[in-house]
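Lay summary

Proteins are chains of building blocks that fold into shapes. Our project writes down both the chain and a compact code for its shape. Here are two examples, one after the other.
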Amino acid sequence: MAIMPLSIAVIPWAILAGSMAINAGLSFAKALAMSSMVFAGAAQLVSLSLVIEGVSKLTILITIFFLTAQHFIYALTFRNNISILPLKQRLSLGFLLTDELFAISLSPDKRHPDYMLGAGLCFYLFWVIFSIVGIVMANMIPNLSDYHLDFSIVAIFIAMVVPLIKNFKVVIAVLITCLSGFMLRFYQVEGAILISGLLGMLTAVTLEQFEKESQT
């Protein structure tokens, strides 16, 4: 139930990913395999866009590596809770670990493996089922991407980020990220999203360090 709102919000995103896979030239089986085995919304959409543009495989791999690098941080955050589990459970939770699962399991009392497994499986089923819907719709409704289903990506991340804004430092970091992102995109700076994200994180770390030094 905790992840149900995010699971519902991801429906347009999953439909878009499924339809884009078909538009990129993948067969039904390959499109389904991508959603069920890769299971990474942003990575799927970006990689499919790069495939459509004819970008090299190495460029796609490097781009996706940096795009999903935050999962290293997620894994380190849960390490003390997950490392004591058997390998089979660790691998299952590692596969199901998404931005959404991290968001609802961030509180220490929510890190029980059964809770995380149930939430992760729920989100996974929504993603795969509605990716299939997108795959089918791609053959029925032309130019499905023109319906701006990608707005669901923005909506779902807003729903995850807002509850985490609990102090002044985070507010400043989020504002810096948003403002720098808008400015860099306006001036068509390549890698604007990545740069703005790094600026936001640097701001948060700097403010945290400044607060610690002022207290000593």
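And here is the second example, written the same way.
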Amino acid sequence: MNTELKYVDVHSPDFGRMKRLYKTAFPADERAPFFLLSQMAKKEDVDFWGIYNDQKWVGLMYVVSEGDLSYLFYFAIDESERGKGCGSGALKALRKKYRGRRIFLAIEQLDKSAPNYDERVKRKSFYERSGFTALNQRLREGSVVYELLGIGGRVEPEEYRRLMEKSVGRIMLRLVPMRIEE
């Protein structure tokens, strides 16, 4: 299987499919407006990727970078392609594309009372098998608290603030509190 990341924008043939996947793969309280993601992706150091296996579209990645730090903000594989190695291949392609950088992502905390606890455990295990490790840090975005996983080292709170300020702007940071908690 040949997995590659290809830049997408509103003119890309799979853009509509990516929008549908985005809206179904992430809970409403964890999604930024899709039009905002599309606009932010025009900025330097913001990458909106289509994931392709053997030239077939299978998913999306949205990555925001600052300095040597890259945040895998959104990552989803189309439901019909899950369990076929697409996600693992995509993370391998991500690590290659961002080689030499610290990469991190946020996952839902392992809360045994959560209705999707088993899914959360499987998700964390998937990322760990792909080389991500627990950073022993939490990320608060609005009212949602996540656990951070990463490759290459910890994320300092000030680095995260700069990264988000650059990508979403100061006004958005004031409207939706986003910060790393130790």
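What can we say about the second shape? Residues 44 and 89 are 25 Å apart (CA to CA).
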